User: What shape does this take?
Amino acid sequence: MRYPHVHKELLAYRDGELSTRRRVRVAAHLRECGQCASEERQLTQVTAALVGLERVVPSPDFADSFWRRLDQE
Assistant: This one.
């Protein structure tokens, strides 16, 4: 990978956490680098899959039960 710093910023790019300047730079890089663009597409797919999952709410006694079982081990 020619620009490892872009690779490190892909999650922040996907999450909209970069400054406008950095976002423009990453977007320009993604147009030119197939490897980074492919990884960004994969991150998009993972994000979409996770958003679609049902949220699991633990029972009120979950923490107590967990620590009790852990102590038994």
Summary: The first helix runs from residue 4 to 14.
